[in-house]
Amino acid sequence: MSATDNDSRFMRQAIALGRRGLGRTSPNPPVGAVIVRDGMVIGRGYHHGAGLPHAEVEALRDAGKRARGATLYVTLEPCAHHGRTPPCTEAVIAAGIRRVVVGTRDPNPKVPGNGINLLKAAGIEVACGVEQTACDQLIAAFRKHVVEGLPLVTLKLAATLDGRIATASGDSKWITNPTSRRQAHRLRSEHDAILVGTETILHDDPQLTCRLRGGRNPLRVILDGRLRIPLEAQVVTSARQTPTLVLTARSASSDKAKRLSALGVEVISMPSKDGKIRLRRAMRRLGKRNVASVLIEGGATVATAALREGIVDRLRLFFAPKLIGGDGRPLVGPLGVRRLRQALQLGRLQVKQFAGDLFVATEVVKA
Question: What is the pTM of this model?
């Protein structure tokens, strides 16, 4: 097996470790690292959360003195600046690492190539760009947040094969099977926040939590222009256990807002038009709170608004092998498309099956 093949193999192991940090590290990126000596992995690590040791440090601790003369594989360029923790480059140099293989460079415009330059200046051999596409995907949310100040937005929808999310009467439980629903809960765990509209709360009264063992609950964000959310809603009664944010066009000092606040719900008043909050403004507000990734799980109304405003970066679609017909509620409402050339363009489709359901993952191609 060639050195290039070895590099890819070990980097894929680092990527798998890094994925364990998805949804847990903001405002930092999820990063994985492995240390290899004589073709054997002797150290493993990933970033568990902001303020905690970075992946490289975790891997170096795991390897101990055996790290001297070894090769470090890390999904993202090691940091060279002081933050909540010391620079990783210092730890790598001090440990006597001989070679560093980097998946992708740090996209932070404040630190262009500093980590790689310091390692090279210390006499360490550096290779960059191994499994870069996968490493870029791992830090997609961090990249967008650090460059644009906005969260990466994923729109998740579940529908029948003919694109219906509910019957004409509104019955939608359950369109997809339990395996697909477990995957949807994994998506919740991997995002900083989950966003829905008021109609979802009024119709389904969801918990909006992750019910997987070892999963984490995202920040719950409710778009509620007219502050119609019931005080008895599950997202309200559990707000002291799971952070919940309501974005409204009403005054945050209104009686209803005060009652929600007393129950542990954070209420923020935002500019609106006809009682409707612009999603782009909502994303800007969340970005300022260091929310780097948002999963939109609302119904067709919120999904359509998100697509029309152009805030969606990724689509995650679950299709069940069922047909409801034209009287069912459509996956997405009118997008104002008059000509085919105006249609929303999507990237390469990644397709899987979950116990008979079809799962489609794709990116929205931005103009």
Answer: 0.91
